Amino acid sequence: MKILLFNMLWEMGPLGLLNVVTFLESKGYPCQHIYLTKKEDETEAEAEAVLRFIEEQKPDLVGFSMMTFNFLRTKRLTIEVKKRMPDVPVIHGGIHATFNPGECIKYADYVCVGEGEEAMLDLVRAMDSGQRTDNIPNIWARQNGQVAENSVRPLIENLDDYPFPRFNWNNSYCLDEEQIKPLTKELYRKYVIRHGVVYDVMASRGCPYACAYCCNALFRRIYKGKGKFVRYRSPENVVAELKYAQSEFPEIKVINLQDDGFAGGPEEYLRNFSKIYRKEIGLALRCRVIPTLLNEKKAQYLKDANMLVVVIGVQSSDRVNREIFNRKVSSDQLLQAARLLKKHDIVIEYDLIIRNPFETEEDMIEKCRILARLPKPYQLFMFGLALFPHSPLRDRAIAEGIAVNENDGYEENYGSYPLRFPYLQKLQQTCPYSPRWLVEFFIRTRHSRFCRGLFHIHYHYICTNIERLKILILKSPTVLAIVKRIIFFPNAVAGLFKRKSPGSPIAAT
Description:
The protein has 509 residues and is α/β, with parallel strands linked by helices. The protein has helices spanning 17-26, 44-57, 71-84, 95-99, 101-104, 117-129, 185-191, 215-222, 235-248, 267-280, 296-304, 318-324, 331-343, 361-373, 392-399, 422-430, 436-444, 449-474, 477-487, 489-499, 505-508, and strands spanning 3-7, 31-35, 61-65, 90-93, 110-112, 139-143, 146-149, 172-176, 179-182, 198-201, 204-205, 231-232, 254-257, 284-288, 307-315, 347-354, 379-384.
């Protein structure tokens, strides 16, 4: 069989579809893997280049892997493929296909729902041998005007049984300068995040939580009763992938663990990972942390592994997190985790959801106060709330009469809900650079024209320039590491005095 699989994400990387491609190749089904590397719609010339490439390859199966904000592009390309090559079957996969298969099956012949490795293998084997393709678990099939909606199979139990993602330079391509070109390492560095200095890897699948805005809430619903939801690769398996990555991409300086909650793993797992990783790899790390699943030992293991940055979600006020988002993390737990990480010299990035129709002015004020309490320095990133199709949050918004843009989630800028409290959002942006008393002052005097004027001076002339400096620092992992040493120098001095105190091992020797 000749299989063409298109990755619709604009940032090239080793996650997602490459897992399926590598698995199929390990089973004797090589795939041509094409990155389309576009944020916006393809130009007429680019779309023609894609379609011409498909026609020239004469494939037996064409696949598109997408997120929701890639769907409209995928839909247009699929329609054109079916016009020009009506006998070539098309399959849709990825997160959007998993949560909205009914929309995808209107245009594609097949839709892959959920984990794709075994499902895709079963499909290509059936097609290759001329067997039925309408009875495969995880695959929806449209044949003769009828749609077979097959249920998902059990979740993959042992992730180590599957090969980690590898680039096959003989079978990989990308869209570049209105042409489909063979993928080279130069083109890879052109389109990958931060030119390849950062390498993304996933050590686990699944999340212990089911926040209402997140895909994991839908994954849990689809896979209810289908096996253990959170699963980890062995540290040895993860390190084997990273050794391969270092051999392929020697420019790597930071390893980004993309897991939903890497530090939520068992203490023994993190201890073993830290020991093996520090010995075999040793590069700076970045990961996500769920505050309720962090403790002193885990924080120490993260530090031992050379953790440079962790990402934690603040998202909203305690009320909204608890009652609307089904997010079981309080601000007190968040603050406790932040202090613990700072104690271990780990920089923190916080995510904050904005443009949230469920928030009141009081919720916005509470968010300001939460951010003001967090130990500095830290980084803050804001994201518009996207009410993705079929998500519990979108259903709730519609039930409560909130106007939902039908394109919400389908566009790259995520949430489209109007910004109702611009002053308080700007105040939140200044919290990483403002003392707590100043934040409180601007909250209490927010109705004063004079004090608003003072705030805008603070916002435009101080915080904006600090933000520019931060962006420059973040561009270089080396500079970031140096800044980190400066920031946590007081911790190092305090630790030195503690170790030299009477009764300590250093003092005793």
